[in-house]
Design a protein that fits this description.
Layout: H1 10-23, H2 32-45, H3 52-57, H4 70-75, E1 79-81, E2 85-90, E3 93-99, E4 103-116, E5 118-121, E6 124-127, E7 133-137, E8 145-148, E9 152-159, E10 188-196, H5 214-220, E11 225-227, E12 230-232, E13 235-240, H6 246-264, E14 273-277, E15 290-296, E16 316-323, H7 334-351, E17 359-362, H8 372-382, E18 386-390, H9 397-408, E19 412-415, H10 426-439, E20 440-443, E21 447-450, E22 461-464, E23 472-477, H11 487-491, E24 495-502, E25 525-529, E26 535-539, E27 553-565, E28 570-574, H12 579-582, E29 589-595, H13 607-621
Parallel strand pairs: 13-17, 13-18, 14-17, 18-19, 23-29
Antiparallel strand pairs: 1-10, 2-3, 3-9, 4-7, 4-8, 4-9, 4-10, 5-6, 5-8, 11-12, 14-15, 15-16, 20-21, 22-28, 24-27, 24-29, 25-26, 27-28
Length: 630
């Protein structure tokens, strides 16, 4: 300590730290955190401050000791500092204690239990309770941080084995583990906190930075607005540029709204958030190619492929969805618009029921091609209270679509800058979502789980396609002009959307079975039979219609056609859709199969399934292959 009691300089503190390290070389090494505390204590005795400025200036040198965050060092992903306590409970569980403002970053799959205090995580405020939250944090996406909001927060992290880590390898390595790290006993890795930007480290792990969003998340989930004498729950329309953070913002809003309503509402209230998702590329809950209306009952702590489903079971129940496929704004037709209006009408019906739930509407780029009259009707029916545009440009085309109506209704407009969290190519992310969807199943005990068996080796479901009591009433090929005689080749081996429709005799809007070529006045579609007796809907002169009305049909999921048995007049499918939904003859309904048009980047093709089989073959040949490559 200086004789005059003046504050130690940064150089003096560094020298004293080095002296302390060298003097203890013969004794067991201590952690950097304990050394930092000793130097800070010395500074206090010298009249120095223990402020954050002091802690920032102290850069402890590496010491030879075991560190719970060595995973990050080995991965050479980012630099970190850490001073928190980590206690190993068992081979598969940890306990972490945080002080206010401290953060913790993890990679992998785990269950989070907040035992003491409160934390901020993925937009949600989580308080100590008995609730257990499932977290999916792959390396392909920005990793969410757990930040303590109280003076002390205690967390318990447990490994989870729901099968998603064991999905066959399809070209994305190190999905759940840091680079060059073999899979450990735990299904997650503690990486540390205080990430430092390193532009030279191209493979560095990305941290999900939500500091700039805290104010808007608080505003959008704040007290209900009052319109005259009636309270209005949030109805938030989200638009913006692609890869701008729209998906992350959507999950953060859902999480914040869900946790707020769970705390404030009584036990008998109807809790949840309604998601009206019009994004067909990477939908949040439904499989690719769908627009959907979903009742979200649980927070969403992971990217879309970790919770994709077509089930109408809680907690995230798909109330209705329509298949639009992969299309451009130039392909927009009346039948696309009809299906948008159908979901909005269903949401209006739900709005009049109990609960008065918050609503989040995802408005993708292709909706900008709607005519102003159509946009005006959609706006009136949706009645948003807020518009969030993930594009800060003053003349953003994504906001211009809605600005006039928002200003006329005094709707709040929030413009945010683009936040680039994930850099996955769309085709690769599409493969991940398709693989996850086809491998997912419902478990009464654990909820959603996944099976590691390659999908092409799974069990088949057979449907009849000929006769009065057939399961399949028709086949629709989107896009292109596939000749009638090529229907068999276009259908076999393709991924198809499975639509549930009411039987023809009950609903005359479905085209009748005729080969005379008499068109239906409403749709101008004809139902022909190929040489294999496949029932094929063939479009007439109209390019804006669809043979099945939006009101009397709905999509129940995706399937893969593996075989067409001409002799038995049956089609074999592989699908996660429950048999109770496919076997519909007893309830007066039939199924239609919709084949997506060929896409340049290979989406809606079963290439990922073939990769699975090749990967499984390599693992059988080389039993030492690490399952972490899944």
């Amino acid at each position: 300590m200086p004789a005059n009691g003046e504050r130690l300089s940064a150089v003096a503190r560094q020298r004293r730290l080095r002296e302390a390290l060298s003097s203890t070389s013969s004794t067991p090494a201590r952690s950097p955190a304990s050394l930092v505390k000793e130097v800070e204590h010395e500074a206090v005795k010298a009249g120095a401050s223990t402020s954050s400025e002091l802690r920032d200036e102290i850069k402890p040198l590496p010491v030879a000791t075991s560190n719970q965050f060595t995973t990050l060092v080995d991965a050479a992903a980012v630099h970190f500092t850490s001073s928190r306590e980590v206690e190993k409970i068992s081979e598969t569980a940890l306990k972490i204690r945080l002080a206010r403002g401290q953060k913790c970053v993890l990679m992998g799959v785990y269950a989070l239990w907040v035992k003491q205090g409160s934390v901020s995580f993925y937009g949600a405020i989580l308080h100590a309770s008995t609730a257990i939250y499932l977290i999916y944090a792959p390396s392909t996406h920005a990793l969410p941080t757990i930040e303590a909001l109280t003076s002390t927060a205690e967390l318990q992290l447990d490994s989870v084995n729901h099968g998603i880590r064991d999905l066959p390898y399809i070209g994305i390595r190190d999905l759940w583990d840091p680079a060059r790290r073999s899979q450990a006993a735990m299904s997650f890795h503690v990486l540390g906190h205080s990430f430092e930007q390193d532009p030279k480290a191209t493979r560095r792990v990305r941290e999900m930075q939500l500091e700039d969003w805290k104010s808007i998340l608080a505003a959008l989930s704040g007290p209900e607005q009052l319109t005259s004498t009636k309270a209005v729950t949030p109805r938030i329309l989200i638009c913006g540029r692609g890869s701008s953070g729209i998906s992350t913002m959507t999950r953060c809003l859902i999480n914040r709204l869900l946790r707020k309503r769970t705390i404030e509402s009584d036990a008998m209230a109807v809790n949840g958030v309604i998601l009206l998702d019009f994004d067909t590329n990477i939908p949040e809950i439904a499989p690719p190619g769908m627009i959907s209306l979903v009742h979200v009952g649980d927070p969403i702590f992971g990217p879309a492929f970790t919770h994709v489903t077509s089930s109408n079971r809680r907690p995230n129940a798909v109330m209705k969805m329509h298949f639009l496929g992969d299309f451009e704004a130039t392909d927009l037709a009346d039948w696309h618009v009809d299906r948008v209006h159908d979901l909005i009408a269903l949401e209006q019906t739900h709005r009049r029921g109990p609960g008065n739930l918050p609503v989040i509407i995802l408005a993708p780029k292709w909706m900008n091609a709607f005519e102003q009259q159509t946009i005006g009707k959609i706006w009136k029916d949706l009645a948003p209270t807020d518009v969030v545009c993930m594009d800060s440009r003053p003349n953003s085309p994504h906001l211009q679509t809605w600005r006039h109506f928002a200003e006329a209704d005094a709707c709040r407009i929030h413009q945010l800058g683009v936040r680039l969290y994930d850099k996955m190519p769309p085709a690769r992310e599409h493969d991940l979502q398709m693989q996850s969807y086809f491998h997912a199943s419902d478990s009464l005990i654990t909820g959603q789980c996944w099976t590691e068996t390659p999908i092409m080796a799974g069990s088949l479901t057979t449907l009849s396609y000929a006769g009065d009591e057939s399961d399949v009433c028709g086949i629709v090929l989107l896009g292109g002009h596939v000749a009638l005689e090529d229907t068999y080749d276009a259908l076999e081996g393709s991924v198809v959307a499975v639509l549930m429709v009411q039987r023809q005799e009950d609903k005359p809007t479905i085209v009748s079975d005729t080969e005379e070529g008499q068109p239906n006045g409403k749709t101008d579609w004809l139902l022909h039979h190929t040489d294999e007796c496949l029932p094929r809907f063939v479009r007439g002169s109209s390019h804006d219609s669809f043979p099945l009305s939006a009101e009397h049909s709905r999509c129940i999921g995706l399937a893969m056609v593996t075989e067409i048995d001409i002799m038995k007049r049956q089609v074999a499918l592989i699908s996660p859709i429950a048999l109770r939904e496919l076997n519909l003859r007893s309830v007066g309904s039939q199924l239609a199969l919709v084949v997506q048009k060929a896409s340049p980047d290979g989406r809606f093709r079963p290439d990922w399934a073939r990769k699975e089989m090749r990967s499984a073959g390599r693992e059988r040949q080389d039993p030492t292959t690490s399952s972490s490559e899944a």
